[in-house]
Amino acid sequence: MLPIVEGVVLIAALILPLVLQDYLTVFATRVIILALFALSFDLVWGYAGIMSFGQALFFGSAGYAVALMARDLNITSIFLVLPAGTLIGLATSLLLGGFLLLGRHPSSVIFVALGTLTGSYAADRLARGWYYLGGQNGIPSIPSMSLGSYDITEGPVYYYFALGILAVVYLLCRFLVRSQFGLALAGLRENEQRIAFFGYKTQHLKAIVFAVGGTIAGLAGSLYAFHEGFVWPNMVGVVISTQVVLYVLFGGSGTLIGAVIGAVIIEGVSFWLSDNYREIWPILLGVLLLLVILFRPLGLISFVLGERERVGSFGATRKEKRNAAP
Amino acid sequence: MASAFVAAFEILSFGAIIVLVVLGLGIIASMMGIFNFAQGEFVLLGAYVTYLAYSNGIPIWAGMAAAPFIVGGLGFVLEALIIRRLYAAPIVAMLGTYALGLIIRESVRGLIGGFYLTVPEPIGGSIDIGTMHISAWRFTIILITLLVMGGCYVLLSRTSFGLRVRATLENPALARASGISTPLIYGATFAFGAALAGLAGALIVPVFSLFADLGIRFLIQGFVAVMVGGVGSFIGPVVGAGLIGTLSAALPWIMAPVVADVLVFVLAIVFIKFRPQGLIAGKGV
């Protein structure tokens, strides 16, 4: 069932700009980038069971970093800004994750959740108060990303570019979670102690996956900054951090495709409702979230995907076993 | 001398406000093991009730007195309907209470719009000591905080209700076997924590005025304070709140406010990392 869902989503994403009006394509690009961001959180929470309430810290730091590169150094070349943003995401998540997750005493789940939340909140306050980063207003009018002499501006080109990156990252993540490493991660989520008894260094595993998540968030953040053309303090703050938690919980954590679908549904419905029902949408979002948590803890995707497909099959397949048998 | 005294008073009164807000959060976290993300919205509701009373011509003090009961009642209902299902997994409880908080906050935002609504102080004016003036209302807040703190301590350590709460915290299975209705105790504890938040909201609304994000402002500070103080006891979160409140009010006097703001959080997280049990370890009162 999983490959079918993935195929449908990919085909829908490929033909979307052909049927949408221009301003909707711009909106769809934003959703694609947010889906990439959601993927990073799903890896950390859905697979390794680390509640990162501060995922926006890596997203926003990368966004601010590339915005500063473009503003102060006039660097907009795609070959420089995207790696730089990704590296910033990696560096900040290594620092924060290393501090929160490693050490002599294993950290409690609550401590990691509150630590990441506090980190994100503190970064928000810092960005708001720091004149160099533009204070409350952030950094406006970032120039477009350039590929040689060609400017990648918002529209179908940016859309397919972002979609390509999303597809590549998705495949990499899919490979990662279906490997031995991914199996260890899923074990970490289900029963950490048992994985430790198998001889895995659970703290190291967690720090690694946290850094991978931060790296993807950094990539998404740099794409987002150039697409929107400005960065503002909310981008590192609690608002975006909790937004990404909502995407993944709605779609279904621990499935990768669930994170993408969650981002698409929430952003889509929010866009659709924002004309007429702007006031009640956040309330409705809260009610829906509560219902999902209480009655569908595995998210909307669990309507079509079984529990077994979430982890995937490992070891010899049935066909191989049949062939091996004499 | 005079300015130092005024500064000390400002720091003390902010510390008292943080303690007041954290009391309920700490009781719920310590006694039930739940980090209640909706606590900030209970504060907001307390403030909103007070504003409603004021705008309908009811005396402000009556609104302030009613707020803890209304918010506490709501807390009791929410516990029975929703929170009760979330005890098994602390992270899921965080997310569930976050969703609850979102619903309450956005509903209030819908009701008041994006405005900052002011509520006058029920006890206005200032207290003059020689040439120094301190706000009478802030002084009252400090007094009430001390009273509430003392009251909570006595309730938890000296009464049979407190004994039951502590027994439920220490060993739920044994408490049930001894004939204590643990679901009722959990409900009552949650309602009590919510009522304290409602009281806090009612008392601080003249100082901070009413706006939809009033509760959020204190939530993260509150969580950090609870962790610094130590989860599991009553006194731990109170001490943590006093420390965090005093620090975040005192540091801006000696350095740039932005740096002070961030520094408090960084210091707190580093402290918790190396002393996970907090300032005051152990369970009980």
Note the main attributes of this structure.
heterodimer; A: two-stranded antiparallel ribbon; 2 strands; B: 285 residues; mainly alpha; ABC transporter involved in vitamin B12 uptake, BtuC; two-stranded antiparallel sheet; 3% strand
Account of the 3D structure:
- The complex is a heterodimer of chains A (326) and B (285).
- By secondary structure, chain A is mostly helical.
- Chain A has one domain.
- Chain A contains 14 helices and two strands.
- Chain A has helices at residues 2-19, 22-47, 56-73, 78-101, 109-129, 156-177, 180-190, 192-197, 202-228, 238-251, 257-273, 280-295, 307-311, 318-324, and strands at 145-147, 150-152.
- In chain A, strands 1-2 form a two-stranded antiparallel sheet.
- In chain B, strand 1 and strand 2 (132-135) form a beta hairpin.
- Chain B contains eleven helices and two strands.
- The radius of gyration of chain B is 19 Å and the shape is globular.
- With 285 residues, chain B is mostly helical.
- Chain B has a single domain (2-274), classed as Orthogonal Bundle (ABC transporter involved in vitamin B12 uptake, BtuC).
- The mean pLDDT of chain B is 85.
- The A-B interface holds A 51, 99-100, 103, 105, 107-111, 113-115, 117-119, 121-122, 125-126, 128-130, 238, 242, 245, 249, 279-280, 282-283, 285-287, 289-290, 293-294, 297 and B 35, 82, 85-86, 90-92, 94-96, 98-103, 106-107, 109-110, 216, 220, 223-224, 227, 256-258, 261-262, 265-266, 268-269, 272-273, 276.
Main β sheet profile of chain A: 2 strands, antiparallel
Tally of separate domains of chain A: 1
Gross morphology of chain B is globular
Q: Runs of chain B with pLDDT <50, length 5+? A: none
- Determine the fraction of residues in helical runs of chain B and give it as a percent range: over 70%
The overall pLDDT of chain B, averaged over residues, is 85
Please tell me what the overall shape of chain A is: globular
Number of strands of chain A: 2
Largest sheet of chain B: 2 strands, antiparallel
Tally the beta strands of chain B.
2
Q: How much β-strand is present in the residues of chain B?
A: under 5%
* Topology-level CATH name of chain B: ABC transporter involved in vitamin B12 uptake, BtuC
Most extensive chain interface and residues per partner: A-B, 39 and 37 residues
Structural class of chain B: mainly alpha
Tell me the CATH architecture of chain B. Answer: Orthogonal Bundle
